[in-house]
Amino acid sequence: MQLTPSQIERFREDGFLILPSLFAPAEIAVLREAAATVFTEDDPANVREKLSGEVRTAMGLHLRHEVFARLVRHPRFVRPAMQLLGDDRLYVQQVKINTKAAFEGEIWQWHYDFATHHAEDGVPTPVALNLHVFLDDVSEFNGPLYFIPGSHKHGPAPTRLDTATTSYPLWVVDRDTVARLAAARGLVSATGPAGTALIFGDCLVHGSPPNLSPWDRRIFSVILNPIANAYTKTQRPDYKHHRALTPVAPLADDCLLAASVVAAQ
Amino acid sequence: MQLTPSQIERFREDGFLILPSLFAPAEIAVLREAAATVFTEDDPANVREKLSGEVRTAMGLHLRHEVFARLVRHPRFVRPAMQLLGDDRLYVQQVKINTKAAFEGEIWQWHYDFATHHAEDGVPTPVALNLHVFLDDVSEFNGPLYFIPGSHKHGPAPTRLDTATTSYPLWVVDRDTVARLAAARGLVSATGPAGTALIFGDCLVHGSPPNLSPWDRRIFSVILNPIANAYTKTQRPDYKHHRALTPVAPLADDCLLAASVVAAQ
């Protein structure tokens, strides 16, 4: 799994890539089963919605389930990340499933990840990559990510810490900046069937609407960051920024297939 | 302006029609100017958002501005309504602009209009038509209406009065019903450039997401109801269900053009 030169060019221009069908239906079935298990757990790494109490984000997953321990080392995630970063020494910074329960899932305000990584964790430069795979079909109706294409080129925008809007404290981008960035190239919603993957960078401004639909929306996310760019502050819990600076090594391409996962357990 | 047989057939099947470019840019400019005037007014018929205090719905507009007095009698609204209802004696039941301010506009929960018309106003049967025209471009990003196509065929669904979610009390449809109706034919978002029009019936289940985008979303709406099917209760203010049972008579097709409006003022 290597990105093509035109994909790399698009990533540099837009700040993100949408990769249809990166994971097969059989692999998604394995991931969904593991997700169902971790969501039932009573764990502080399961962050719940402010209003409904439903799980909003289940974190630290590679330390909680063998399937996710493999997924963070999946070559279809790790090799493109190494390729885009030109660096083979990456660590697993954060591993989660962001879910938006049908009818319940709330918004993520306009933000970019580096604002939090820098302010909370002391990450020096905005190079970490956020790699997603959809566990459900994601449409315009069930809370897709909205990207502002090209917004990463304007460098880190001003932010403020919002602890009120949802249950998850977030460094958010102000409205004037969102309006200015979106005026250039509009907005893009990242949609596609389960198995679709996303890669986006640490300065890309994004947000997402609530889920008014009757369909759940679960997205797995791993953030990979160069060890040379590691955290310098440890004020957040390990499950929000993992301390282990072990270089991630890609597994075999079939590492999620049920037989090999079962054999490992 | 008459609907074609295939449009009428689609309305019967889907419960709604989307009519691109029903109003021209010059007409939209006139409507926007009038909208800006009524939005600045301190009037109980300007219902404000729960959180921001921005105007959410400006009502009773045909009694507040000559442009809207003309728009409710516009032949591109009135003639299709007469045609669909097979009735020339319609009254103007409600006239409003629903706005969703950039970044601020909140949701409309899943509902259908007849639940309110019946419970609050004692309207006997679900035949009223809701006719919209977009005053702004409406995209997936700035809070479009979501329709459940075919939902009107299942008759009035169970509802409950929700006075908590937003500033506007609304008879809403429960989640199980929304899930069941949407399972059949999915959801459709009503999007298009300014000037696009919608017609939908009194039992069509619909809702809309908040506006996270930097772009305002204003939609004009007139509800036309047969005089033979008029209200039997008057507990709501006149601007929510007008008392006058005067048959609406279509004006000339150019009735919104600036010169003729100015001449009338």
Compact overview of the structure:
2 copies of one chain form a homodimer. Chain A is α+β, with helices and mostly antiparallel strands. Chain A is built from 7 helices and 13 strands.
Q: Helix amount of chain A, in percent?
A: 25-40%
Radius of gyration of chain A: 17 Å
- Which term fits the overall shape of chain A? globular
Low-confidence segments of chain A, given as residue ranges, are: none
Count up the helices of chain A: 7
- Mean pLDDT over the full residue set of chain A: 94
The most extensive contact between chains is:
A-B, 21 and 21 residues
Secondary structure tally: strands of chain A:
13
Largest sheet of chain A: 7 strands, antiparallel
Oligomer: homodimer
Q: How would you spell out the order of helices and strands of chain A?
A: HEHEEHHEEHEEEEHEEEEH
Structural class of chain A: alpha+beta
